[in-house]
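In this section we walk through a basic example: taking a raw amino acid sequence and producing a predicted 3D structure, encoded as discrete structure tokens. The instruction is simple. Fold the sequence below.
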Amino acid sequence: MLANVVLHRLDRAWQERYRRLGTLVRYADDLCVLCPTRQRAEAALAALTEILAGLGLALAPAKTCIVGVAGGTDGYDFLGCASRDWRLIV
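The resulting token sequence is shown next.
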């Protein structure tokens, strides 16, 4: 529950300033951003880094990556669901 309290500020900042980059999906302290292009995914990564730094937090490098799954050869699981678009996984 504490993660939701702290990261509510992330949710608000994303909706107010960065939603044009992609759709933020968050469950507690896990999140992904669904982006239509790699360029927007890279911009989303920079935005998340900035927002979290303002909260005194940082992304986990071992868990953070940009996955291009539009070709159907790459993929990822987020909360038990597999998907096929450009995504930033955190």
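Looking at the output, two observations stand out. The mean pLDDT is 84. The first strand starts at residue 23 and ends at 27. In the next section we compare this with other chains.
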